[in-house]
Amino acid sequence: MTHLISQINAYKIFLITLMMLPAAIYSQSRRFIYSYSFAPDSAKTDSMITEYTRLDVFQDHSEFLSDVGAKKDSAISSAVRNRQSQADIKLPDGKYANKTFKSKELIYTLEYIGIQPFKVIRNQKLNWKLLGERKKIQGYDCQKALLHYGGRKWEAWFTADIPLQDGPYVFNGLPGLIVQMRDTENQHSFLLVENFKVPDIKTNLINKPYFVPVEVSEAQFNKKWNEYRKNPVGATEQFMMMNPGLLSGESFDTNGNKIDMSQKKREEKEYATRQLYHNNNFIDLILYQNK
Known about the structure:
By secondary structure, this protein is α+β, with helices and mostly antiparallel strands.
């Protein structure tokens, strides 16, 4: 009992200290690189993909997204701004396509149904359970916490050494930065591997022309997801639905020969169906639950 009271008092002191820290300490943007490992297919959980993701912490909000994806978006934006060709941009697309925005007033994730982006407003409160267990991870003194979120059980290790109540994806609210986090099935895991200051930038979330996100609630997104899952369409057909009147419906190959659009749509629909089948193991299972 005495040990528990001591822990509670220490936690209160930490929060008071955190509130009293001068804002200038983290007035500059900071970047935290996480190695993210995940199994895209729930039927093949031994086939893991690993890529770097970034948590950028600004003065009034933070953003979480694929590191290489952010670099590619920035390169494309620069090329468009300077009226340069995008053909020389050789960066790959990130395997982790979604993006997260977090502030005191708002949390949303950018989710994709096919090629169409959706701005999904996330209002769920994270009910963390703090444990007394501690260990050193990546050189940081860390404490353990548990969470039920998105139909998964999560184990997190956070450090008061970095007084930021943040972490990967939508995860935040702990008294310190999350250093390591994984679900108990070991299908999704994050590990902090780097931490440095970055030039003063305003955002990584750059909307692409003709792909402006549609704002929806979690329930609305799930409805749209299930409609698409039951009747997937290919990229060309979906793009035409997103931007009516922009394309004529005709397409030509590099030799100038007219492409059979009906055949192309069938092939793209088959591809979209395969993608749905093999990419089904989402971080948030509730958001994507089948109905």
